[in-house]
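In the previous chapter we treated chains in isolation. Here, by contrast, the input contains four separate entities that must be folded as one system, with a combined length of 1446 residues.
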Amino acid sequence: MKKYRVLLSSLLLSMTSLYAISTGTYDDPLYGTAMLNAIPKYFAFGEVFTYLQREWFWKGFLIALFLVPVAGSIHYMIIGPKVFSHDGKKIFAFGLFMRIMHNLAALSFLVLVPTGFVMAFGDFFGGGTFVRVCKNLHGIATPVFAITVLPMIIAWIRDMIFNMDDVKWMMIVGGYLSKEKKPIPAGKFNAGQKAWFWIAMPGGILMILTGALMFFLNINLSPVATLFGVSQIDLLRISAIIHNVLGMVVATFFMVHVYMAAIAIKGAIHSMITGYKEEEEVAILHSSWYRKLKEEGKV
Amino acid sequence: MSKTETQILSSSKVGRRSFLKMAALGTASFGAGNLLAKEEKIRAASAEEVKNPFPGSKTVKTICSICSAGCGIKAEVQNGVWVRQEPAHDHPISEGSHCCKGTDQIDLTKSKQRIKYPMKKENGKWHRLTWDQAIEEISSKMLKIREENGPDTAMFLGSAKFNNQQSYYFRKFAAFWGSNNIDHVARI
Amino acid sequence: MTNHFGDIVANSKLIMMVGANSAVANPIGFKHFLQAKDRGAKLIVVDPIFTRSAAKADIYVRIRPGTDIAFAYGLLHVIFKNGWEDKDFIDHRTYAMDQIRAEAAKWTPEEASNVSGASVAQILEVAELYAKTKPAAIAWSLGITQHSVGSSNTRILPILALVTGNAGKAGGGCQIIRGHDNVQGATDMANLADSLPGYYGLGKAAWEYYAKTWGVSLEYLQSRFHPELDAKGEHKWMHAKGFSLAKWWQGVLQEEKTHSSAPIRVLWVQGTGITSMSQQVKIKEAIDKLDMLVVAEPFVNEAAIITDRKDGIYILPAATQFECEGTLSATNRSAQWRTQVVEPLYESKADHEVMFAFAKKFGFYDEYVKGMKMRVEKGEVVQYKDDFVWPDDAVREIARTVKSIGLSGWTPERLRKHQANWHLFDPLTLKGHGEMEGEYYGLPWPCWDEKHPGSPVLYDVSKPVNEGGMGFRNRFGMEHNGVSQIADETVTLPGQKIKGGYPQLTKANIEKVLGITLSEEEKAQMGPSWAMDFSGIIQKYAREYGVCVYGNARARTIVWEFPDPVPVHREPIHSPRWDLVQKYPALPDQDNNFRVATRFISEQTKQDWSKEFPTIMTSMRLVNLSGAGMLERTSKYLSSITPEMFANIHPDLASKYGIEDKGMMWIHAPHGTKIKVRAHYNRSVTADRICMPYNFAGVMQGVDLSANYPEGTRPYTIGESSCTVVNYGFDPITQISEFNAGLCRVEKA
Amino acid sequence: MENINSRLKFYCDADRCIECFACVVACQNAHELPVGIARRKVVTLNDGVEGKETSISIACMHCSDAPCSQVCPVDCFYIREDGIVLHDKEKCIGCGYCLYACPFGAPQFPKDGVFGAKGAMDKCTMCAGGPLETNSEIERHTYGQNRISEGKVPVCAAMCSTNALMIGTSEKVSELYRTRVLARGESKEANNSYLWNVAYNKQSRKGLTQ
């Protein structure tokens, strides 16, 4: 637990220090000479951003918004959820700290994703107070998510490395297209979860960074900007592009994740509340892990 | 000759608002053949077109108090409050132009940092005085010093910000006090 | 200014700015230079710093601070050598040009280049361009005056204009761009230690004249002064110059020898930022030592802040100029009426109300304001009413009194009418039309009488006197060294009924000069000379005969009562060129000027200052601040443009001392003071010099003085005053400080 | 009003601009902006470098194809027939997209309340107020003066110290500028029309980016 505390505090510290960088210079990094120098370079990222935001981002978000619900509904109707016995033994999967971390992240995502969509379709809501509140919630939820990122990475990264099981898992799409209950090749985390992990964690960090940039706007980032060889305004434009594109992907995966946990596998959500998974569920959906646990005599 | 470049534009996004207004070349300026140009606009919009933003205000012509170019200022005053500073396009020297100090005259006059009442420093602390107290204390001390060592004990530093009449009367003040110890920043 | 801004736009073919950065100090003035440039005029900027003005110039010449005379002689050398001078002008309208020619002969372009740092090619180019382009205006400002040779500097540039015949011409002339809004007026009205209003001096005749116009006896005025009499039995301290702004602190500290009836014990500051004066540490010590400090200002004067004293400081709230009414003189000598915009805010009082209140307590109020209740009747000033109207009656008092510079025509009625009819004046000529036909805007002085239109261009002999023309003033006698000081007979103005030059008009000579006979009544009413003639009869005849009351004389190029009759180059008191100090040494030390002794040569040669202090230090202005910055630093918008004091430093110099861009550095002065400022890498300065704005205050030698401000009055920005490190050095005549040439040592902080 | 040349435009003559900040402070005073917000900015390039120093005043250019209005997620921009680009602060959520889309860095965001969140965007209105009742107090407080409706010139150009800043229909501005350049009798290179070349001329864009 101690290492987590260190982690946590260092994380908080880095967040606040980001906050504290002042803007008190003669030449504002955004609006001063740098701005004028950036004008001729507008036709790189500036124009690209404008084009993408005007033509494509809203379409992307529209697809993201409807893809999972539609696909989920079809899946639910045709194949239906997987139901496992709740009377059997339970296997301890997640400790209290990790459950808190995960659920904090889940909570923050429940805010981040919908508010993100509201912003993306701000004109649909007519702008104004509602969208503004959503924007601020989006900002407020971010630190909550940020706190959880490093602990989750550290705790799970070893289990998240892809292996042969995952290839097999991919071949059969995790068995979700069949109603049969036969063991699926997967460790503690299956390939789907791993994919989600790799998108949500490094992607999440990227989302946090790009989001923070856009949120704080004119804090002096000239060292970073120089590192990438672009002006600060271009850094912001790049951030906006990344944030949007990645946002679509993350939102999509998040919805899949929610569908799986809450609907497609009945009761799966309990493992993140109590920490215990149904033995049958583990045996079927995480057969490799189950085997390993058995070998170690933990079942 | 005139640099008045006016044309009527109807301005509005469709259906949002509409009224007639004049748009003009802001600072049509001194180009060849444009020698006498000074008035750039501008017809005041009629009452039907627009509401006066400062009802009942009057315009006072005055002069910027920063530098010796002597730019004109038009001050809009409403109920004794200076509410807006307008460019004096008809002023023969500045023709409406200002530097940043000139454009800030309204703000400077109303600065929160003004000295608001007479004060005296005593035991390292500032204390508020009434004018009567201040005049009484200062003058009695000065008269006492004058009594002791004569009028050349005082040094009067006047101002390039005085108007001519104040300036003349400041010189006269020193003369009546009895000293030529008077000077101002023209010497720097 | 001898001309006005519109005239530059309309007529100048070349403008040479020397020691002036009006793009920053005076942007509206600079607008006119740019307009002239867009019309095809050439703009030459001569400055130690590549200023914002220089950025717009056709030719920029970088010279070393304090070498303006050397540079000007370099130009004169080339001009004389090639015969480009205006020989007729020199013969007919100037005196002693041969002495200038002799001095110029010493200044080969090579020597001028060696001293000033301008290249020989540039000197040749500028000389040819300036001499051959006509009309050409010279503009200058504090870069010329703020030197230990300031009064020579201000003579050499008009000499350039005289040599090339540009003086008194539309589009030519000498454009001295003044600083504060009414610094011209405050000087005319003599907030000065060496004169009464209108440059009448402090002689007995002047005091008598003023006693009359003020409605008091000379004896009364004498009784106000210290009673000590001089050898001639005159009131010594009434006729002696007072302490000056530049060195008043010696009157308190008395470290250098002073000559006054008493030490200074009370300082009364009304509207002068104390931190714009040099020797800040001495000023601080002097304020510490005073019995009392009285400050009357709209904003806190740092005089009350830089001192450590715990008692005896009074701060009085004065109104701004938008809270009172009166006239002010623009840099082109135009009077402008300033109308009150609002009533004085808070408890503040208008400046004259402060004076009136104290005059009452001091017991001279009735005599003090009597002048406003008087008028001229039959050549005598008599009281005709019991109350007065401010400012109108003060305007009238000035008009009947200050004849020397021709303020007689400045009546409140005329000036108000000018204000009401701004739109009827042409910006390029200042000529009025319509209702204002026949007058120039603001009646630029001299405006000899109530019918005179004002004089937009000084010394312009192409116009009749009654329409604003005039020759040079006959001020220095009829002849000098046997040479007549009166202009040549070819210099006859249109409408002039006598031929050629003539002396200034006095009661004694008017009949002879104009060939008239005065009646006894006229003689009885007439004052002794045109400048002291309340009756206006001299001016009446002058108008009739188309002559100028002050005469039509030669411009003298030498000032025989000065220590340097011919302006000569002298190295700054703290010179970076020790080799040149031997060749061009400073003047001998002065025992008494403005009641105090001043060191010149002894300070200059005390040691080779450049060894310990190798970097040249010069001052600059910031566009958002003026003077000591007292006003503008309290503006939330203006102060945010430059939130901090800084110095411009060349990257090469900075890196030599390990100073980083935007890092802090110390600047040490030879007299042992230092300031801590932020270094700004900037290539407008070369690696041998640094440049600082002088508009900050509130920090002294690294110590923040915020705690000394009364609550709620601290300006939004405070900073070190560059005047803390301005070197010792003063002009021998005007005692202006040497702000613009000094030495320092920089150090990483 | 279909003619694109009848749209109102700013133009800053770099040969005249002396970085005096008059436009900036005039604007701040006229609209009583919070400290730190400058709808107009003055920038000097190559400060102190002989022969290269250029100052320029810059603000919203009121683009015909205003990219800001194309990217606004809440669609708060509107372009008047006279070409003035305005926005509705009630709708604006302060997301910053308009700034990313703007070539000129015009949109600014006053800090608004907790966490340093950005408030509603603020930019030059060409002194034409906003979508609230014309010349009402609330319009003045929200958007600043509505001088256009009074028949007055925007305050920055009206007070420009050197008449560097011009405003008018693009036709008139270019006419005036052309007269000025012809009077100068010289064909100045890029910096003369730095902004316009870059912003409105596809050919010179390439030149400058290369």
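Chain C touches chain B through 173 residues (CB under 8 Å). Residues 68-81 of chain C form the longest helix (14 residues). Compare these points with the single-chain example from earlier in the chapter.
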